Amino acid sequence: MDIVLRAAAAFVLVFLLLRVTGRRELSTLEPFDLILLVVIGDLVQQGVTQSDMSFTGLVLAVGTFTVLAVATSWLSYRFKAMRKVLEAAPLVVVEHGKPIEHNMRAERLTLEEVAEAARLQQVASLEDVEWAIIEPSGQISIIPRG
């Protein structure tokens, strides 16, 4: 039972860390970020299982994470109010060609990154952007002026 409680606590910790980290950082992983996530995964594993290297400990820890992941997904699907807590909403960062500074600051997003996303979607400049929206996945959707 100890492993299940530690796994549940680790799940909540990882969930909160991912929410604090932000969408943009997770969608554009640099090699260092990827290595850091692997190290965090190993540290979480050590904290969950401590010195229990048994197959039973493995099943309990992975099972707990799986049940909690499915439960959060189901809660998000079933209850709209939970969706607001568990998932990020799309956020407009450019409207009618003008950047929305406080939204960009909240996502730690630079004007250059938005301009790059526009160019990747065949839009030459931000003046040609009707809407730029950072999606829950961290990707930036560009809707050109029509």
Question: What layout of secondary structure does this protein have?
Answer:
Layout: H1 2-21, H2 23-27, H3 31-49, H4 55-78, H5 80-86, E1 91-95, E2 98-99, H6 101-106, H7 111-120, E3 129-134, E4 140-144
Antiparallel strand pairs: 1-2, 1-3, 3-4
Helix pairs in contact: 1-3, 1-4, 4-5
Strand fraction: 5-15%
The structural domain count equals 2
Shape: elongated
User: What's the β-strand tally?
Assistant: 4
* SS field, number of helical segments: 7
Percent range of helical residues: 55-70%
Indicate the structural class.
alpha+beta
Q: Main sheet: which strands, in order across? A: 2-1-3-4
- Rg for CA atoms: 19 Å
This entry's quaternary arrangement is single chain
Low-confidence stretches: none
Summarize the structure.
This protein has 146 residues and is an alpha+beta fold. Helices cover 62% and strands 12% of the residues.
